[in-house]
From TrEMBL:
NCBIfam families: sensory_box. Keywords: Kinase, Phosphoprotein, Transferase, Two-component regulatory system. GO terms for molecular function: histidine phosphotransfer kinase activity; phosphorelay sensor kinase activity. PROSITE patterns: HIS_KIN (PS50109), PAS (PS50112), RESPONSE_REGULATORY (PS50110). GO terms for cellular component: plasma membrane. Its main location: membrane. It catalyses: ATP + protein L-histidine = ADP + protein N-phospho-L-histidine. SMART domains: HATPase_c, HisKA, PAC, PAS, REC. It comes from Schwartzia succinivorans DSM 10502. This is histidine kinase. It is an enzyme of class 2 (transferase).
Length: 1177
């Protein structure tokens, strides 16, 4: 039979249907797929073009195992056109996912003798998944039910509609003693004969079979010959909505019923007991309160309904948490140890809400036939406990008072002479003083030896009067062994009498009054001090009533040294005047915080009677000095507080201490301070007076300096030294420069030393001059040697210009910054294990190396700049990249010197600059490296790079380098751009020198670029360079003109490398082979020419040619190769690879027939960029 053909319109209509369907035609015994709708393809999430076409038509992706089912369905519906025969088939969808589809076929009336079957498809994957999940769940439920029934302790059974047993669990069978379920199957309760109340159980089960569930029905049964109490629950069993039987369970409650009966009998008894009672029982490992009698609720005021009914465990809510835990632990311990009784105190919250009441409880353990019970009886002891608490509190207060006052209290019996002491914290130490031990002692007999001899007679007479009933007190001196200081004690007795005036009770107490007497003594001493004028540095003193803020007495020695004090002032106003004299706000705040009146009073009450503060101040003549203010406070008998204040000038002691500190810390052999107004001075000379401490002279300073000079300075130099160190000359130098130094020869230990004397102001007011002398012999000799060597080198340099150039290039400080980056990052790279960091360091080493190479070239070409031979080579470069290559090595140098490096540069700008990269970087690097070099530690170097919106003098770029360094003098600014110019003064002598070419190079490059450079500088404050340049900027598109090396294929390309230096050859060969080149090496031009001849035509993709080689140089080798009678010799790329890198050298290479030039040291990127252009595949 031939295949049916749809019309084009009909086929298009059917294929574009959104529903999933397909059309089949039977050809012989097989069914062919005529077409598939778009809906079917979408159901499988497969594009139509991916549906495979077979001999039987389009592949429906039905699993091979399910194809027979599909064909059976098609055959059936073809034979039974009215039948519905759906089948579920597995179909392979997108990503090889298994789908479950329901195929339903419907035959179409024959057309032209051909019957077609139309099949619709529905995705039933979700139904299939749910069906499998339900099947697994049913299996798990059946297993779970079987496990529960076999392990539960509840007895469970089930019966049919005739009340015959059809099953029971293990607990049911064990309860009645049946070996297996076969023993009860098909039998009723009557058959088994275990129900005493047959009718009751039968009627109950009939109700259940009518659809009524029963719950906890009580009844009796016979179990192994014994009547038992049970509670049963039953429910109907349904199947297809009909009751087919019942299921039931029961519990044996015989023990509980018996215990309930017993509890009822006991409850009646306990309710009539006239005491608060609670009863506890143990249930499931926990103690539960099961009974509280009426007397308990009456006694506590807690109604029964508040206790929670049965069980009445809510009683615990009325107990304090600690008591609740005590009761629980007590019951547990009694149950464990079988102890019968214990007692304690519990606290119960009363219903009135007035707090907790105290109850004495007795817990008893009683054993009954039905089990063990625990009875807790409560007796209200609230009032007794409250009274006891108050007594304890009063006693604690009394003991604290006695302890605070260091008072001992005792009760005395005059007949036995016994004193019974109240113990306090210091009782034992007090007894130890008298050499006594125990709570009771004989007095006065036991204490007489502790009394000073001159007070013993009074002491005995006092006790006689006390024994006769007389109250009184006595102060006596004690003599304590091994103590040198005197101690005093006050003994007081109070005697109470009865109605007839007869003494009945004696109470004694003693108090240590040593501190009180000493306080009085100190107070009197302070008042005596007000009448004295010593010591010499005391300049003011006064006495105040702090409580009333009144001045009582004041005295001022010299107003020029203190503050002005007048009689109408008080403590607060004098303190304000003192604060006004302080040097600054910090000193004023220190005085206020320490000596403020309220603070002094507060700290006095806390036990601090002496306060003091040191501070810097200005005298009335506006001179700097140091002062010490001291305040001593006392409490008078009326409760007021008095203060005695003293002001001391401690300037000399402070300066002496500073001098001694400097001598210890620094390598000085003389140090001193001169008062510029009075001429007084401190001096400590370890050479002239090695055994003396800091001394103060008030004589002629000139004479003292002359004494220091004449004893040690060589005769010929004495006058010069006296003039240089005279006070007039020193003052003149200090006025001009702020500091002054003088170096001189100094004879000591029979040898000539070099000494340096320094003078500088010690304070901002110029009241004091600090001077020191230091031995600089070793440094001086080293400097002499260095100067001699330098002079010799300079003389040699002047003899030959070439030697001068090499010398200057060798010591050029301009090379040190990139060298510092190379060395520093090399050390970091060797030290780190982190490959990412190591790669970063190597990149920075590479960047610094390139800068070093360019600076060497520029130093050597200084003369070329002057002659105009050096021309600019502008190129397009990203602006941020241009700046970063300068900032990285400078930042390293600044960090190593502890100089803050601040940058203000454009970041993230998509801008490129058209400039000579190396010249531009050299301008910035020279300025920045100079700034770092001449800036001291903790100084700052600022770098600004700015593109101007409005040009200045035709320049659109401003570069600013500013530092807080040593600066330069105004006279030096005019010549600082001349070659080899360096300023030499006291500020620069400790800074290592450079070439003096850096600023010269900067100026010439800026001039070449038609720019401007300005400088501002103040000596000692810093320098600021401003550079204005005209630079062409454009939107960054640098990559457009750059060959991407990673896109170039070098693999298998063969090169000839001509190089006489083995190290250079190894470097180049390794770099090339890493990129996939095959490299042949020749050690000179002769060998290179020979290897090229021996190789066949077009064997080499290129030749790398060194210039300076033995036997035959590079120029000669190129000439010979180009002259060969071979076509490839004329066109093979030959690239110069040489250290000859001047522009004329590059031109010479091109003239000799070379195609390109690579400068040494080799930059791999530049080399591969050139090779990519000339030698790539």
């Amino acid at each position: 039979m031939k295949s049916f053909e749809f019309s084009e319109t009909e086929r298009k209509l059917l294929e574009e249907l959104p529903v999933a369907m397909c059309v089949f035609q039977r050809v012989g015994w097989k069914y062919h797929v005529l077409l598939v709708s778009d809906g079917y393809c979408q159901l499988l999430k497969l594009p139509r073009k991916s549906m495979r076409v077979t001999e039987s038509g389009m592949d429906l992706m039905v699993y091979e195992e399910d194809m027979a089912t599909l064909e059976n369905m098609l055959s059936y519906v073809e034979l039974h056109p009215d039948a519905v025969y759906p089948v579920r088939l597995r179909v392979r969808g997108a990503d090889n996912r298994c789908l479950h589809l329901r195929f339903t076929g419907k035959p179409r009336e024959p057309q032209n003798g051909v019957r077609l079957v139309y099949v619709s498809c529905v995705d039933v994957s979700a139904e299939e998944d749910m069906h499998r999940a339900q099947s697994r769940a049913r299996e798990r439920s059946d297993l779970l039910l079987e496990k529960v029934l076999s392990t539960t302790e509840a007895a469970i059974f089930w019966k049919d509609a005739d009340r015959r047993f059809i099953g029971a669990n293990r607990a049911f069978l064990d309860y009645y003693g049946f070996p297996s379920v076969q023993s009860i199957l098909g039998k009723t309760d009557e058959d088994l004969g275990w129900n005493i109340e047959v009718d009751k159980f039968r009627d109950d089960e009939k109700k259940v079979l009518e659809g009524v569930s029963t719950y906890r029905e009580f009844g009796h049964c016979i179990r192994k010959g014994e009547v038992r109490d049970i509670v049963a629950s039953k429910a109907p069993l349904y199947e297809d909505g009909k009751i087919v039987g019942l299921v039931g369970s029961f519990e044996d409650v015989t023990q509980e019923r018996r215990q309930q009966n017993e509890n009822g009998r006991l409850t009646h008894i306990l309710e009539n007991v006239p005491a608060g009672l609670c009863m506890y029982q143990l249930f499931s490992g926990e103690f539960v309160c099961v009974f509280v009698n009426r007397y308990f609720t009456t006694m506590t005021g807690i109604p029964m309904e508040a206790l929670g009914g049965e069980p009445v465990d809510a009683i615990h809510l009325f107990l304090e948490p600690e008591d609740r835990e005590w009761l629980r632990k007590t019951l547990v311990e009694m149950d464990k140890s079988k102890r019968d009784e214990t007692d304690g105190i519990l606290h119960i919250r009363k219903k009135s809400g007035t707090g907790f009441g105290s109850f004495y409880v007795i817990v008893r353990r009683v054993i009954y036939a039905a089990g063990v019970r625990y009875y807790v009886s409560y007796t209200d002891v609230t009032e007794e406990k409250e009274m006891e608490r108050k007594q304890k509190a009063e006693r604690r207060v009394l003991e604290r008072v006695l302890e605070k006052a260091h008072i001992l209290v005792w009760e005395y019996n005059p007949e036995t002479h016994k004193a019974n002491f109240i113990k306090t914290a210091h009782f034992d130490s007090a007894m130890k003083i008298h050499g006594l031990d125990g709570d009771s002692v004989n007095v006065p007999e036991s204490l007489i030896n502790s009394i000073a001899p001159n007070d013993r007679k009074r002491y005995i007479e006092f006790y006689r009067a006390v024994q006769n009933g007389t109250s009184g007190s006595i102060d006596v001196e004690l003599r304590i062994p091994d103590e040198t200081e005197k101690r005093y004690e006050r003994i007081t007795y109070l005697v109470s009498h009865d109605a007839d005036g007869k003494p009945v009770q004696w109470y004694g107490m003693s108090q240590n009054i040593t501190a009180e007497l000493r306080l009085i003594e100190n107070y009197n001493r302070e008042k005596m001090m007000l009448r004295k004028t010593s010591p010499e540095n005391l300049f003011a003193k006064s006495r105040y009533n702090l409580t009333d803020n009144r001045m009582l007495v004041f005295w001022v020695k010299d107003n020029a040294k203190g503050v002005e004090i007048t009689p109408d002032m008080n403590y607060d106003t004098v303190l304000e005047a003192m604060m006004e004299s302080a040097m600054d706000e910090a000193e004023r705040q220190k005085i206020k915080e320490t000596l403020g009146r309220e603070n002094v009073i507060r700290r006095h009450r806390d036990g601090e009677q002496t306060l003091s503060v040191e501070f810097k101040r200005k005298t009335l003549s506006n001179r700097l000095s140091w002062a010490l203010a001291t305040v001593n406070t006392f409490t008078l008998s009326d409760g007021s507080i008095e203060a005695f204040t003293y002001g001391y000038d401690i300037t000399e002691s402070v300066l002496s201490q500073k001098i001694m500190t400097l001598l210890e810390e620094l390598d000085f052999d003389l140090i001193g301070v001169i008062d510029t107004e009075s001429g007084r001075y401190f001096m400590h000379d370890t050479v002239a007076h090695p055994d003396e401490s800091v001394r103060m002279w008030g004589g002629d300073l000139n004479e003292h300096i002359a004494e220091l000079v004449r004893g040690h300075v060589p005769e010929a130099e004495i006058n010069e030294a006296l003039e240089a160190m005279s006070p007039e000359h020193v003052r003149s130098e200090l006025r001009q420069n702020g500091s002054y130094e003088y170096a001189m020869n100094f004879e000591e230990d029979g040898q000539i030393h070099r000494k340096l004397v320094r003078f500088c102001y010690l304070d901002s007011k110029h009241n004091y001059v600090f001077l020191c002398r230091q031995d600089i012999t070793k440094e001086y000799r080293r400097e002499l040697e260095r100067v001699q060597k330098l002079n010799a080198a300079l003389q040699s340099a002047h003899q030959a210009d070439e030697a001068k150039t090499m010398f200057l290039a060798g010591i050029s400080h301009d090379m040190r910054t990139p060298l510092n980056g190379i060395i520093g990052f090399t050390r970091l790279a060797l030290k780190t294990e982190n490959m990412e960091h190591r790669l970063d360091y190597l990149k920075k080493i590479d960047s610094s190396g390139k800068l070093l190479l360019s600076f060497v070239n520029d130093v050597l070409e200084l003369s070329r700049l002057d002659s105009g031979k050096n021309t600019m080579h502008p190129e397009e470069i990203l602006l941020n990249s241009l700046i970063d290559e300068v900032v990285v090595p400078v930042r390293v140098s600044a960090e190593q010197k502890s100089v803050h490096f601040v940058t203000d540069i454009p970041q993230g700008m998509n801008v490129s600059a058209f400039v000579d990269k190396l010249k531009m970087q050299e301008v910035m690097l020279n300025l920045l490296s100079n700034a770092v070099k001449f800036t001291p530690e903790q100084g700052t170097v600022m770098f600004l790079f700015e593109i101007l919106e409005e040009p200045i003098q035709g320049c659109n770029t401003r570069i600013v380098v500013q530092d807080t360094g040593i600066g330069v003098g105004h006279e030096f600014i005019s010549k600082m751009f001349e070659p080899f110019m360096q300023e030499h003064n006291a500020l620069t002598k400790n800074i290592s020198g450079g070439t003096g070419l850096g600023l010269s190079i900067v100026k010439r490059i800026v001039d070449h670029m038609k720019g401007f450079i300005e400088v501002e500088s103040e000596q000692g404050l810093g320098t600021k360079f401003t550079v204005l340049l005209p630079i062409e900027y454009r939107e960054a598109d640098v990559q457009d003109n750059v060959i991407r090396i990673e896109d170039v294929e070098f693999e298998g390309q063969r090169l000839l490398l001509c190089e006489d230096n083995m190290l250079n050859m190894e470097i180049a060969k390794t770099l090339l082979e890493d990129k996939g080149f095959i490299v042949d090496c020749a050690e000179d031009g002769v060998e290179g020419l020979q290897k090229y001849k021996e190789a066949g035509p077009d064997s080499y993709a290129g030749i790398l040619m060194d210039i300076r080689m033995p036997r035959m140089n590079g120029y000669e080798a190129v000439e010979c190769i180009r002259a060969l009678d071979r076509e490839d010799a004329k066109k093979v790329p030959i690239i110069a690879m040489t250290a000859d890198a001047y522009p004329e050298d590059i031109q010479h290479c091109h003239d000799a027939g070379m195609n390109a030039h690579i400068a040494k040291p080799i930059d791999p990127e530049d080399m591969f960029r050139v090779l990519a252009k000339w030698c790539a595949k």
